[in-house]
Every structure is written in structure tokens, then in C-alpha cells.
Specification:
Layout lengths: L12 E3 L5 E3 L7 E6 L6 H19 L2 E7 L3 H11 L5 E3 L4 H6 L2 E2 L10 E2 L2 E5 L5 E6 L9 H8 L1
Parallel strand pairs: 3-4, 4-5
Antiparallel strand pairs: 1-2, 3-8, 6-7, 8-9
Length: 154
């Protein structure tokens, strides 16, 4: 993990749910909430992504957008996005490189030997590409403090 508040967010390239390569630089011009989640269709992740979905109008008023990032495949993320009507991009960190660099990974996630997943974390990148908010948890069952995220965006 090399990301810290007050540093430049490293650019990345990952595939979205339509298998289109997307980069962080593409989201510049608005504040971007990078919401790292361990896995689609897991209770806490479902609740977190739906909370961000329900907050989109308020976040838009703060000149902010949301991008979800997990190690799930574009196919799983596409089904997840459709089922929960998530109105923001979901990116697939298939090689775990971006997750490792930004928030770290949970090793042996779900007690599955050899399986690593993105740690739950929220990183806010401002319009100029600087990290203005950073939160990560060791406990995959813990949700972010949504009011703190909104406060950081205000």
C-alpha cells in the first residue's frame, strides 16, 4: 500500500463491465470516490454499493462520482451492476495490482487458501488527481463511514 492523503493518485488501467479498458485519468474533472470492495454478491459489499448508488444524486451535487473496484471479473461485475442497478462504473482488478497499491488485499479471503481480494477501502481523488481522503479497514465486514465520505467531498 503506497497511497496516502495529500499524494498524487497513481493512474491505472482496468476493465469495466463492458470489457472496455478504463483509466483513472478518464475520471478527472470531478472528485472521484474509489470504492474498493472484496467481492460482488457478499452481504456487506452489496449493502455498500447500494448505499453509494442511493447517494449518487447527493454526490453529484458535490461534483463527485463513484467508481467501484474489486477483483471480480467483468462478467460478475456486469451481473452485479445490473441486478442492483448501480449507476456507476465497476472495474475489475484482475491482477490485484491496483488494489495492492491503493488499499491492500485480504489474503486467503473467505478462508479460501490462495484467494486474495481487495480490502474494503475508500479513496477520494480530487479534480487534479490528488488523494484528499483515505480509509481502509482490516475487517471486511466493516462499512465505510458514509457521512465522513460526504463531509470530505463537501
Amino acid at each position: 500500500m503506497t497511497i496516502k492523503q495529500g499524494t498524487k493518485a497513481p493512474d491505472f488501467k482496468m476493465f469495466d463491465t463492458e470489457r472496455k479498458e478504463r483509466s483513472l485519468s478518464e475520471f478527472s474533472g470531478k472528485k472521484t470516490v474509489l470504492a474498493f470492495y472484496p467481492g460482488a454478491y457478499t452481504g456487506v459489499c452489496d449493502k455498500e454499493m447500494c448505499t453509494f448508488r442511493d447517494s449518487l444524486p447527493e454526490l453529484g451535487g458535490l461534483n463527485a462520482q463513484v467508481v467501484g473496484i474489486s477483483v471480480d471479473s467483468p462478467f460478475v461485475n456486469a451481473a452485479f451492476k445490473k441486478e442492483y442497478k448501480l449507476g456507476f462504473p465497476l472495474l475489475s482488478d484482475l491482477d490485484r495490482k491496483v488494489s495492492s497499491e491503493y488499499v491492500g488485499v485480504y489474503e486467503n479471503f473467505g478462508r479460501i487458501p490462495g484467494y486474495s481480494a481487495a480490502r474494503r477501502g475508500v479513496v477520494i481523488v480530487d479534480e487534479k488527481g490528488m488523494v484528499t481522503y483515505f480509509w481502509v479497514t482490516e475487517n471486511p465486514g466493516e462499512e465505510p463511514d458514509y457521512s465522513a465520505v460526504k463531509k470530505a467531498l463537501a
